[in-house]
Fold each of these.
Amino acid sequence: MPNLGTTEIIIIALVVLVLFGSKKLPDAARSFGRSLRIFKAETKGLRDDDHQAPATHQTPAVQPAPLPIEAPAQVAAPAQGAQPGVAVNGSAPAADRH
């Protein structure tokens, strides 16, 4: 990997200054710093969660109370007087189906 010298760093800084302007650079640096601070806090929180995770597995989990079982709804039986060979709901009679 090439090493950056002072002249290269100065040239890069001038290019950034020309591209973004002197008014936006402080705001950009401030928002970058905030983002970096939030990122560090979140990664630290994840590491702390990993250390606390084995301790939480030792405690028994609370199980919810079982729900009462309901009887399924009764399905209406077909009419006793249904005639064989009569179309039902627009379908062909049972004798005509092959």
Note: Helices lie at 6-20, 24-58.
Amino acid sequence: MARSKRAGDGEQDGFSAEERAAMHERAQELKATARRRRPAKQEEEARAVLAKIAELPEPERTIFTRLHTIITANAPTLAPRLWYGMPAYAKDDKVICFIQSAQKFNTRYTTLGFSDGALLDDGAMWPTAFAITELTPAAEAQIAALVRRAVGEVAE
């Protein structure tokens, strides 16, 4: 009789090492958040985002820094925080957009993603994640418009 594969028995559990590491980071973030008070929590979370960005190798550090600046300038109602070990921006404690590292998740490009809380609805389907290989002035303007739209700060 064949032995079934179980998580934790040293065999594949369906998650990559990067995904397991991200889940572990998220659990640590939740524990740290539960211990903080509201005003201190927001300040500490913003510092944690900047610290995480500073840890990134180039060229991602530059891309993440520009994205952070664009997002915070165009959607000041969003609060920076870590989400699965990566920068995210939340409104009323719900993540609206996030940035994923190509290097951390072994992908070809940095990803700017939007959750279902983002107000990007456009007909029967619309994109919720964008690949970023470099930030040109045109790409920065497009991202700024997307972020404003995501938080409902732009008329359609």
Note: The longest strand covers residues 94-100.
Amino acid sequence: MEDYRVVKEFHFPTDALIQEWAIYCGFNESIEEFNDLDVYWRSKIHILPELSLLALIYIWLPVSGVDVERSFSSYKGILSDRRVALKEESIQMLNFLYFNLGSNIDNYDLIE
């Protein structure tokens, strides 16, 4: 847990979180076997409720400075001056499409 101090919940972890961490560390499985971290952590919610909820939040954060800069650049395009009147739901959908389709988003005709 010491190596993950960047996660604020690990600064002063609850007893339950410490117990779940110990259980998780005792698993004899390789996370590389799973293609989808979201599916992996959702499958652990009944065993590791607190740790799973944290993981489901943190797995979507950019992991490097390059990823962060790329995200800011993407958001600049999504939140351009032409799109100032977008509803929050529309912005979320644009984010989803952009980060799942990547640069290929321009190849799709999103408006019929």
Note: The chain is about 50% helix and 0% strand.
Amino acid sequence: IQIRVDNKLKEDVSAIYDQLGLDLSTAVRIFFKRTVAEQGIPFTMKLNYDGKRSYARKRISQDVILAMKAMSDSAEENGVSDLTLDEINAEIQSARKGR
């Protein structure tokens, strides 16, 4: 999966995930797993009073941080929180072969 984001957003997100003990790949995989488990976005999406989506706020909401913590806990429970880049790539290759 390739995702285009600006450098500032990537740096901000990486700093948060680093504090949670996650790299970007693990965080995205956790997000996907929680999306499946929740059958939807695993946090509330709201509009601010000015009509802008909440992700535009400079400060990340507590809901998102709690969702990320839940995803981190889920990764721990499922034994995927400590995967190396090589292990992640091996999982990707295995999934692609299974198509």
Note: The chain has four helices and no strands.
